[in-house]
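Notes continue from the previous slide.

Worked example: a multi-chain complex. Inputs as given:
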Amino acid sequence: MTREAITLAILEIFRREFEIVDPELDKDLRETYGFDSVDAIELLLEIERLLNFELTHDEKKLAMDIRTLRQIIDYVELMAKRKDR
Amino acid sequence: MTERRVVITACASITPIGHARGEIVESLRQGRSGVKPLREDHLLSRYIHSQVFGSVDYPLAYDFKRTHRKTMGPVAYYACQVAKEALEQSGLAPEFVTSGRLGVAFGSTHGSPTVQREIYKTFFGGSRSEFAAIGAVDYLKSMVHTTAVNITRMFGITGRVIASGTACTTSSQSIGYGYETVKYGMQDAMLCGGADEYDTTTVAVFDNLLACSTAFNDRPHCTPRPFDIHRDGLVVGEGAGAVILEEYEQAKRRGAPILGEVIGFACNNNGGDLILPNLAGIRETLRIALRDAALSADRVDFISAHATGTKMGDIIEAQAIHAVYGERPFVTGLKGYMGHTMGTCGVIETIITLYMMNEGFIAPTLNLEEPDERCAMIRHTPALEARPINVAAIQNFAFGGVNTSLLIKRFV
């Protein structure tokens, strides 16, 4: 999955699931868009659906420090590589 | 311990007989029932003998932000809507609402049965998808304190939280415990109430216990029939209600409209059987409430009876009322209009009593045409009475042997 494809898919998830349209790449999602802990857990489930495999507990914990859209895309890219391995 | 006066400064409800105060009062005056045919739910409805339900069948225009909606099942929508209306009506300043001096006492019978049903489908639906997990928010929507905390979240309330979940006494406990919390100075105001959404599992439970009405499936508006010789059981209903309780001096200082005063509350348990009504237990509840209010029984001129329309429940309640109050106060079973709204009934019946107190009339018990002689010793209200209510008792009893009695007074 290319970085462009990941970005488009994540933006679609944000629009569909969180009613957040085109968030800026480096803005703090919580402060700027009210993206909270409940949304973060929901997003992980959406990422699993996108990648079509289950993330491990440790991989999910890695996501807990994410604050921006760019970090989310980086994270998904990293997880997607795991699948490719 | 210093005791402070507690007044009601706002109220709002969603009921099977209307949403706005004017609609509800008109339904009471016209004898309009909110009991309708049970709706198809593609799960239980076809197996249930009782085919009637106290239904909220009008549209509600919710205006909640996504951040609030995402943790709400239908029951929390009801709860947040009445909380919003009550807070707006109260005129409480936003700084006070978030100050920690306002608490919430709110509950429901279950969390959200609609959401719980989806969780069970995930468990037992036979899906082979490894992603058919329970959503992170499903617990927040279905937990038993979902109404209380969705309210605190929506309005930024930081005070105490009491989330009663005692079935039919859920919201009468909310008001009672809210009253005591303000009376003894733990909070300066409390937002109190309850909600329950459309739910056939509750109907199925009472149906299995042979406690539901089944003889009027072709004439839903003729049931339930509190105290009537032809009563054949209760009718489950849905709805929500909220009241704002406030310390009197504060309410007076800010010029708040005062709808009534809470002057006494009692809650006890029968100490035994979890289903059968208990005369000694209920009689004691009514007496404790009078003692709490330092009031003699002859000062009470109206009783909103729990009166669900079951064979034994209505008889035991009539006996308890007669033992404590005699034949003086008017007695009405408001469930005749809308069925038993479960966790909501205490607050809806309190709000309707406040409306009648403020409008100067007493609604009759709908469908009470021929009192059962075993219930006939009390002063029933067979027709609308144009007379003032000065002090009223609101009585509620729940499975588990929990009883409550709440005393409210007209504010003059």
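Summary box: Chain B touches chain A through eleven residues (CB under 8 Å). Residues 307 and 314 of chain B are 5 Å apart (CA to CA).
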